[in-house]
Amino acid sequence: MKTLENWQVEILSSFLFPYSNGFLEEINNKKSDEAQCLFWLWTLQSL
Asked: 3-state DSSP: the chain helix, strand, coil percent, rounded to 5?
């Protein structure tokens, strides 16, 4: 419950304002996935 008390204003604001960073999160996830795939490809090639 302490978390809800600490973030109450931000949580309520998220319902009042229709903004989202979903687009940027998608880009970051794709880059992260790509980096992980490249790491594993590099690891498998070095065996």
From this structure: 80, 0, 20
Q: What is the pTM of this model?
A: 0.54
CB–CB of 4/11 below 8 Å?
Answer: yes
Domain spans, the chain: 20-47
Number of residues written out for the chain: 47
Neighbours of 26 (CB within 10 A): 10
pLDDT digits (tens, 9 = 90+) for 2-32: 999 999 999 998 899 888 889 999 999 999 9
